[in-house]
Amino acid sequence: MSWGLILLLAAIVFCNRYVFLEPRVPVKLPALLEQALQYAAPCLLTAICGPIILLDQGAVRPFPDNPYLWGALASVVLACLVRNMVLSVLASLAAFYALCAWL
């Protein structure tokens, strides 16, 4: 890949991000698009984590002894109960490592 192409792509990405991050640039999105963008981060996180949780080198992990699935479920429950980012991350990591050792 040439440096010119890399710089062009970097400039395009920067301009796309700058328009939405700079408060002096007047960008008004339609209400429907603004509402739809609220779900972009959870969708992206699900798309990243889903294959890690459910697949093992291209094959589906077996359900009962899948520490990633049980760890993800424990993380969701802990996050709902604790409602504190740092504590839920630490508790989720502890639960995941305990599940890995147990399963």
Question: Widest sheet: strand order?
Answer: 1-2
Query: What share of residues are in beta strands?
Result: under 5%
- Outline, from the CA principal axes? extended
What percent of the residues sit in helical stretches (DSSP H or I)?
Answer: over 70%
Beta strands, count = 2
What is the gyration radius calculated from CA atoms? 20 Å
* Low-confidence regions: none
Number of helical stretches of at least 4 residues: 5
Task: Provide mean pLDDT, rounded.
Answer: 89
Order of helices and strands: HHHEEHH
Mind summarizing the main beta sheet? 2 strands, antiparallel
Given helix and strand content, the structural type is mainly alpha
Distance between termini? 44 Å
Describe the structure in your own words:
Keywords: Membrane, Transmembrane, Transmembrane helix. It comes from Pseudogulbenkiania ferrooxidans EGD-HP2. The chain crosses the membrane at residues 37-56, 68-99. It holds the Pfam family AzlD. The chain has five helices and two strands; from the N terminus they run αααββαα. The protein has 103 residues and is mainly alpha-helical. The protein has a two-stranded antiparallel ribbon with strand order 1-2. Helix 4 runs antiparallel to helix 5 (85-102).
